[in-house]
Design a protein that fits this description.
Distance between the termini: 24 Å
CATH superfamily of the largest domain: HAD superfamily/HAD-like
Protein name: Haloacid dehalogenase
Number of strands: 5
CATH class of the largest domain: Alpha Beta
Number of helices: 12
Oligomer: single chain
Organism: Leisingera methylohalidivorans DSM 14336
InterPro entries: HAD-like_sf, HAD-SF_hydro_IA, HAD_sf, PGP-like_dom2
Strand order of the largest sheet: 3-2-1-4-5
CATH architecture of the largest domain: 3-Layer(aba) Sandwich
């Protein structure tokens, strides 16, 4: 089935997302594991991805867990340090596709404020042909509605979309809708998939 557009997740596909690494560097792995076991940081982050206020949500969590208050507030105050770099090969693939006239879309779980912060640090995130951010849409992957919104807004039929994401449950939800998919681990295999599909040459995908 020919592919008419490529859909990228953002975190851990185009930019690094490493909160555990950040906390390990600050308080050590053992205390980080204790913190993450006792405090629902990732659950609160999912609420932010749904559109909850960033600072308010994190600071309320800190107030609820005073023993960890300082460390919890880092999730807001030091957020960009948890996104320490672009995944440059993936960025090159995105730009190579666009240079050939192949539409590139974003489908990402992201908060409103955190997405703006990420775009400020990584301007290429503003370069998609279409962007679906969960906080703007009030629905998150792997819920079916966020995939349906992308289909509706872009007008591309599911079977003509190729989607890459690092989370198996998000890939499974896309596949159920008839999307073509690639579970992202590192850029190399995805580059090979783009070559296999005839979207890029080996030189363009390097």
């Amino acid at each position: 089935m020919p592919i008419d557009a490529v859909v990228f997740d953002i975190g851990r596909v185009l930019i690094e997302w490493e909160p555990e690494r950040f906390y390990d560097s600050r308080i050590g792995p053992a205390r980080r594991r204790q913190l993450f076991a006792e405090v629902p940081l990732h659950a609160v982050n999912l609420g932010i991805d749904r559109g909850a206020p960033f600072r308010g949500s994190v600071y309320a969590l800190a107030d609820a867990h005073p023993a960890w208050a300082e460390e919890i507030r880092w999730w807001h105050d030091c957020w960009l340090q948890m996104v320490p770099g672009a995944i440059t090969h993936s960025v090159r693939l995105m730009q190579a596709l666009q240079a050939k006239g192949i539409p590139v879309f974003a489908l990402s779980n992201f908060g409103t404020e955190t997405f703006e912060t990420a775009c400020g640090a990584y301007p290429f995130l503003r370069g998609f042909d279409h962007t679906c951010v969960s906080a703007h849409l009030k629905t998150i992957k792997p819920e079916p509605e966020i995939y349906a919104i992308l289909e509706r807004e872009t007008g591309v039929a599911p079977e003509h979309l190729l989607f890459t994401d690092d989370r198996p449950e998000n890939i499974a939800a896309a596949r159920l809708r008839g999307w073509q998919t690639h579970l992202f681990t590192i850029p190399g295999p995805f580059a090979a998939r783009l070559v296999q599909e005839g979207l890029l040459t080996e030189q363009e995908a390097a």
